[in-house]
Amino acid sequence: MHSPALRVLHVCMLCCAVAFVFVSLVQQEKGKQIHVPTQDGTLNMTQEVYIYACSDVVIFVDSKCKGVRIDRCRNVTVVVQSLLSGVEVVNSFKMKMQVNGQVPSVAIDKTDGIVVGLSWDSRDAQIVTSKSSEMNVTFPVSADADAEWVEMPIPEQFVTKITGPKSLSSSVSELYSH
Q1: Which DSSP string do the residues of 19-33 spell out, in sequence order?
Q2: Three-class DSSP category at 23
Q3: What is the CATH number of the domain that holds 105?
Q4: How many domains in the chain?
Q5: Which range marks the domain in which residue 140 is found?
Q6: Can you tell me the distance from the alpha carbon of 2 to that of 131, in angstroms, rounded to the nearest whole number?
Q7: Going residue by residue through the chain (178 aa), what tens digit of pLDDT does each one get?
C-alpha cells in the first residue's frame, strides 16, 4: 500500500495533461514506485481540467481556470479555487468536491454519494442534479473565517402534479422540508 502523501497531486498544468498523469499513475502503480511524467505549462482561465477514471486520490487545482470536469471517478476528493464556468461531475461514486473561491454552478449527473463544499463566495452557485443520489452540500453560515459550516441534503425526490391540459408542476418532497 502506498502512503497517502503519494496520492495527493497538485494540478497546475495543461488540462489535457491531467488525464495522462492519472493514466500513467494507474498503469505504473503495481511496482514499488509511482512515476508521474513531467508536465510543462500552467493552467490558465481559458482551459478546463478534465479528471477521468481516478480512484482513492486527492486532487488540488491550484489555479483559477474555466472549469473542472470529473468523469468515472471513485472515492476522489477534488479541491479547487475559483472557476469561471463551474464543476461537472458525471458517472462517479463517493466523491467530495470543495470550492475555496467562487464558482457559478455545479452539475452532478449519474453520481452516487457526493458532498459539495461551497465557500461563502459561492453561496449563490446553482446546483443542477440528474439521476444522482446521496448528495449533500456544505457551506458556512457567514463570511467569518471561523464560521460554523452546515451540511444539508440536496433533494432527490420530487412530487409532480398535472396542473392543466399541457402543464406540470413539480416541488421538492416533504421529506426535505425539515
Answers
A1: HHHHHHHHHTTTSS-
A2: helix
A3: 2.160.20.70
A4: 1
A5: 4-176
A6: 34
A7: 333 333 445 443 333 334 444 444 444 444 444 434 434 456 677 778 888 888 888 888 877 888 889 999 999 999 888 999 999 999 999 999 999 999 999 999 999 999 999 999 999 999 999 999 999 999 999 999 899 999 999 999 889 999 999 999 999 888 776 5
